[in-house]
């Protein structure tokens, strides 16, 4: 468990740099957003910090129907607590939904619902895929690179029409990524359980549940799980895109 710094004395584990960031709960700033009455947002990652997507924690203190995304913007929702109703389907904790750009269906949040919301300008390759919904419990997991202590659950179909991936990575205690990754894709990540050490560039950062991370293009990155319980994180990656893509 990372050390508990006293935020009232200027302490925080949050670190924001030009190419990566760690955003921790003691530094969260809750705000409101037009069209989301009774909701509080914590926007952890945004284009203002250099990212090409936005990632927010959303908490509904009252029931409401969420407004549609801006034109050309896709969404991915992952329910943490409560219920989300959409298209006649009710989604509970650890359910998810991909909504393509210009999707007009209503998204109803029950009182007390908490979710992670990703938004980005979709990069089409031919036909734009339709909406995808599911639950993590029904999503098959596979060992990553043959390591049965490190399981990846891919929530979207393996289809080049999708310009992104959303996965949940599960690490047994002591498991780690096989090597330090460096690539042109960027990530947004939220720890769901457990923790460990994340290397971002030359920083070695203790991380735990509730922490969020932004990794920009070409940032050296590696994670090792520590402690007695398994570690899980939800991770976004821009995918099926050329490095010369304008977005």
TrEMBL record:
SUPFAM superfamilies: RmlC-like cupins (SSF51182). CDD domains: cupin_UGlyAH_C (cd02212). Gene3D superfamilies: Jelly Rolls. One of its GO terms (molecular function) is ureidoglycine aminohydrolase activity. InterPro entries: RmlC-like_jellyroll, RmlC_Cupin_sf, UGHY, UGlyAH_cupin_C. It comes from the Bacteria. PANTHER family: (S)-UREIDOGLYCINE AMINOHYDROLASE. This is (S)-ureidoglycine aminohydrolase. It comes from Jiella avicenniae.
